[in-house]
Amino acid sequence: MQLANPADPQLRPDGAKYAYVYKGDIYTAPLHGAAVKAAKGSRPRWIAGNRLAYLAGGQVYVDGRAVTKSPTPIGAYAFNRAGDTVFYIAQQPGPAADPVVSTELPRTTRLYRQAVSGGAARVISPEAWHVVGFALSPDGTRAACSVQKTPLARDVFHIDLHELTLATGAAQPLVVQTGRDADPSYSPDGRTVAFHSQGGTWNYFAARHVALVPSGGGTIRYLTEGQPYDVFRGGNAFAWFSDSRALIYTAGHGMKDVLLRQEIASGQVNVLTERISGAASFTPDLRTAIYLKSSPARPLEIVASQEGEEKQLTRLQDAALPTLRSRVVRWKASDGLAVEGMLWMPFGYRQGQRVPLLVELHGGPTGVTLDAFPMPRTYPTHVFLQQGIAVFSPNFRGSSNFGAEFRLKNTLSQGIGDYDDVMTGIDALVREGIADPDRLGVMGWSYGGYLTGNVITKTNRFKAASVGAPAVDWTTYYGEFDGSKEVLWTYFGGTPWDVPENYARHSSRTGLKNIKTPTLLQVGSEDIDHNHEIYQALTDRGVPVEYVVYPREGHGIGEPAHQRDLMERNLRWFTRWLSVRP
Asked: In the prediction, which pLDDT does 191 show?
């Protein structure tokens, strides 16, 4: 619970100083010196004059002084090159809807501009636009805006790019096509906009791309087409070379994330570093960068790279931590698909010893488990290892970082193909003499909760299970889910009204009668709750079950006291049923 990762490292343009966020505070430090707490807030950014801007209390601050007075909290912000004008997006002010009516849309988020010296903010985006992101051109005359179809959560994959001429307010489309096109970034010469694209499809599993379009509109070019790197999770923050001939971004590549440089003309890609987490921050000449970097043995730290030489800057995680013994596991599913996952061995493990094994199924299914130090807030991985239990997290079909083809194999295969990926991975560890087949457990949250619930309807090989925030019946879930319906269309090939047999085939409801595994159920009170179905089925049939609902929590558990309770309950549950002495 005490472990926390640094976040959002930002290098000052002169390369002499940097800022980052740690445990809700913003720190600054010389590039090779001690850090000091600068403010409480988030999103630190350096602006002209080596001044530090950041968000605090929903407002933009510069060097400790609030420069905005937005009546609603500010999201993204940026300054012009001179640093005398701030641009930001915020929801239009007004009362909360009461009652909420389906035909009445929520208030939109608008783009505003305001002088840093004071005065009223002025809205500059058209009233009909719901702006979810933006970028300023280098000369400060234009803004590329990510505009969502409506403010509704179901339209998060309906985002187009439009360009505003700031002097006149004239608007023109840049990219208007099916899917999500967002996260714009102007080239230094102002002639090109890089962006993250869904590639003109609503298919959730399909390839994402780093794309280019001319300022003013024109032909789209997908830079990542045909490349072996996956930008489903990355490829949405860019650093441009000053001559506009190359750009840098983060992408996934199997069990690692990598920082890439790509030439615009040839498309050639070079890996600059591996095991990066998030985006890098550069000096304008790109000779110095800082970024978060992980390792299998230690949590994230901030690293500087100068002329290709890396040096660790922070020592935030130097507390006495156990040395983790982990490795990447590779195996073949029954249909021949190559699958990878992470295995963490118990402390004090001896070669040839069979140990209890907990299988952790990630969410998504487009999540991914990386070859990195685990920093969980759901399951107490390190304590499991201390108790002599190995932890195995397979990247089953549908996971990101392995490309669109691998994700697409999860289509019409939920609880079938991914189930086989998990089972064959466990079988491989049993054959290897690591996993004790009589002391297996399985756990997962969100899609991992669905898959865990599905698994225990099909096999009794597990001594215990923990199911978090699952779907049980997909038709019911479709009606309750207020997010993008394209996700479920991708899963099942259409709506429940068009292909009801697909939704039924991949649901766990009819298999609940088969469960004999003692099961812990956990969910937030504000989330869609299908755990009550599992609870009733297991209670009716006398199967050991514990059902926990966390007040005020949504799909993720955020309150520290609840996180602690969640982890402690999972620890007690699995040590009990796997016959592990605490």
From this structure: 97
Q: What is the pLDDT of residues 256-287, one digit of tens each?
A: 999 999 999 999 999 999 999 999 999 999 99
Q: Which domains does the chain have, with CATH numbers?
A: 52-95+105-283 (2.120.10.30), 325-472+508-577 (3.40.50.1820)
Examine residue 365 and say whether the peptide bond preceding it is cis (omega within 30 degrees of 0). yes
Q: What is the pLDDT of residue 376?
A: 83
Give the angle 143-144-146 at the CA atoms, nearest 5°.
130
Closest of 356, 271, 281 to residue 574, by C-alpha: 356
Of the candidates 496, 464, 482, the one whose C-alpha atom is nearest the C-alpha of residue 555 is 482
Per DSSP, the residues of 180-212 read BEEEEEE-TTSSEEEEEE--S---TTSPPEEEE
Q: What's the confidence (pLDDT) of residue 2?
A: 67
Q: Contact 472/534 with Cβ under 8 angstroms?
A: yes
Count CA within 13 A, CB hemisphere, residue 549: 11
SS (H, E, C) 9-66: EEECCCCCEEEEEECCEEEEEECCCCCEEEEECEEEEEECCCEEEEEECCEEEECCEE
| 415 touches 382 (CB < 8 A) | no
List Cα–Cα distances, 207 to 6, 201, 227, 230, in angstroms: 30, 9, 11, 8
Query: What is the Cα–Cα distance from 21 to 318, expressed in whole angstroms?
Result: 17
51-91 pLDDT, tens digit per residue, is: 999 999 999 999 999 999 999 999 999 999 999 999 999 99
- Output the pLDDT for position 582: 61
Confidence tier at 320 by pLDDT (50, 70, 90): low
Q: Decide: helix, strand or coil at residue 240.
A: strand
Of 488, 463, 460, 484, the C-alpha closest to 473 is 488
With vertex at residue 543, the alpha carbon angle to CA 539 and CA 545, rounded to the nearest 5 degrees, is 70
Short-list 54, 72, 74, CA closest to 64:
54
Q: How many whole angstroms from its chain centre is CA 347?
A: 29
- 443 contact partners, CB below 8 Å, separation of at least 6: 358, 359, 360, 361, 379, 452, 465, 466, 467, 468, 570, 574
Res 294: pLDDT: 87
Cβ atoms within 10 Å of 36's Cβ, excluding its own: 9
User: Which has the closest alpha carbon to 391: 230, 203, 580?
Assistant: 580
Residue whose token pair is 């982990």: 326
Short-list 397, 387, 482, CA closest to 439: 387
Instruction: Select from 306, 321, 215, 357 the least CA-distant residue to 3.
Output: 321
Q: What angle do CA 189, 192, 198 make, to 5 degrees?
A: 150
Beta bridge partners of 360: 443
Q: What's the sign of the alpha-carbon dihedral 257, 263, 264, 266?
A: negative
A 10 A CB-CB count for 58 gives 13
Smallest CA-to-CA distance from 392 within 317, 444, 321 is with 444
Q: How far is residue 559's CA from residue 565's CA, in Å, rounded to a whole number?
A: 10
Q: What is the pTM of this model?
A: 0.94
Sheet holding 181-186, edge to edge: 181-186, 192-197, 209-214, 221-222
